[in-house]
Amino acid sequence: xxxxxxxxxxxxxxxxxxxxxxxxxxxxxxxxxxxxxxxxxxxxxxxxxxxxxxxxxxxxxxxxxxxxxxxxxxxxxxxxxxxxxxxxxxxxxxxxxxxxxxxxxxxxxxxxxxxxxxxxxxxxxxxxxxxxxxxxxxxxxxxxxxxxxxxxxxxxxxxxxxxxxxxxxxxxxxxxxxxxxxxxxxxxxxxxxxxxxxxxxxxxxxxxxxxxxxxxxxxxxxxxxxxxxxxxxxxxxxxxxxxxxxxxxxxxxxx
Length: 255
Fold this sequence. Notes:
Belongs to the RNase PH family. By secondary structure, the chain is α+β, with helices and mostly antiparallel strands.
């Protein structure tokens, strides 16, 4: 009955919980989904870096594959980072098989914006030989179980997976001009920033830590006080998530 009511009258369904100052899953209105429930790095052995994150009942896995390519003419000293978020039909009944839907495309663009705005990795660090060779990082983020908050979960998984990446040493042979890969010598990526996404839903009348991105996807106007409250809570959550990821990364031995 509850599921039918939520489907037919979603607005009224959630308003009833708002009156009781709680959420349908039992959380208080200001309570985040549990981030510490499950997070592991190195989940995909065939990837150069990976991580699985469970945020509440939403589960996301991120796999990163590194390939060598020539940099573009206008960015001769930079590599590439190519993110892609997938929301397959198996993760929720709200999605269908076929080309990426609107939400998946929006999530991919959100992750791309986070990467660009936060400078989590300097693309210059991915360059091996100026104008000749650079790393391309393909970041595939796949939702295994969808229960909302996909943007936060995707950002967490991306950060944890990037911190898990080990790239082999690559040099250019000056005599032959060919690249030489040393699989016995691997190095982690230089993670310059640690962006953590924190989403809020605002209902009706609702540093050197800086914001790298702020998205407002419609709804009622947001007052300065509420925005500041969201930012303060986001900073607190950033500390919690970064501490968790650092703890997990330290427990993983390099391959």
